[in-house]
Amino acid sequence: MVPPRNTDALEEGEQSFLSHLIELRNRLMRAVICLVAVLLVLMPVSNTLYEWLSRPLLRQMAEVGAQMIATEVTSPFLAPFKLTCFVSLLISVPYIFYQLWAFIAPGLYLNEKKLVLPLLISSTFLFYCGISFAYFAVFPVVFGFLTTAAPIGVTVMTDISKYLDFVIVMFCAFGAAFEVPVLTFLIVRTGMSTRQALTEMRPYVIVGAFVIGAVLTPPDVISQTMMAVPIWMLYEVGLLFCRIFIPEETSGEGSGKALVPK
Q1: Residues 54-64: tens digit of each pLDDT
Q2: What is the DSSP letter of 135?
Q3: Contact, 198 vs 239, CB < 8 A?
Q4: Which residues contact 216 (CB under 8 A, 6 or more apart)?
């Protein structure tokens, strides 16, 4: 004989699932509204934003008598608009992460809440630091090299859309590279490896950092080094945080020894 189905429990589960979907929809809507609102506020200053973004290159091009150009009909409008969308997303990221945090927080244990919130804040801050480092430290050096490396008789005239694509890729690359401390901390905190194992992997990390720098930056030693050295330093910062905030007995000792290359 088939036992009767517990319809009350099923209805309760369906209502709980629907309520979660409704909450997720509401929080996604809030994030989208925030993004659109920031975009609308920034639209009147789109050209100013692009002028600010292109300043590191324009300074170098002015020394060699070059300038930027627009090779497509719609580029003078689309390039600043694309930049404004990107900046709007960067500005909205803290609020978007807050909505994500508010959605998942009720289902987390207290110790998980203590871990997730600082990681969200620190990862956002480090991403902004990576973008700032690229703009203020890397771009003047890279563009100075590229504008002076042109052969004699070749005038440097960079297209505004190509420049924007290059800059966004560099921003994302340096922003991701600055997440190394968070990644290192998570690897040890979750028991995937130990601090000792990661310390022994330092030579491989240094080589990997230079390989990443060679792949993601223009083909010159200076820009490659300016990405590789921060990755290495941030790796050391991540190990330091592991030493300070993760007790030795909870660092998953022995779980990650297999990760050390032999």
Answers
A1: 999 998 888 77
A2: I
A3: yes
A4: 169, 170, 173, 177, 227
